[in-house]
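Following up on my earlier thread - several people asked me to post the actual chain instead of describing it. Fair enough. Here it is, all 135 residues.
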Amino acid sequence: MLNNKFTFVALLTLLAALTVAAGCSPQQQEVKASIDDAGREKQLKKGQALVVTLEGNPTTGYSWEVAEPLDEQVLRQAGEAEFKQESDALGAGGVQILRFEAMNAGQTTLKLVYHRPWEKDVEPLETYSIQIVVR
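Reply from S.P.:
Thanks for posting it. Predicted structure:
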């Protein structure tokens, strides 16, 4: 009888541990940044994702892009920017989402510009910059 209780308790403990581990969603590994974070510092741990969400409207030709080469030993862009439209209306604005991955401990500046990529001698419509510290 004691052996069965021990086995039952051990199984419950294992189940609880697995439930907690499964509860560590990828979103807990994400650090979010928005226009409100401009000029601020964001701290990440190695392997965490930085998700930058900024208003935009690519139908106008404007898009957010990294303005200066990143120190990819510290922070690397993960994939292409994605756009989420705010409505189904033709030409509607929305948000552009850029994802980055913290690679190694260090510091770097993430500078983004909102511009038309083909307009080479034109100032960007907007700029966005945050300091990144990876621990």
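The CA atoms of residues 62 and 117 lie 8 Å apart. That should answer part of your original question.
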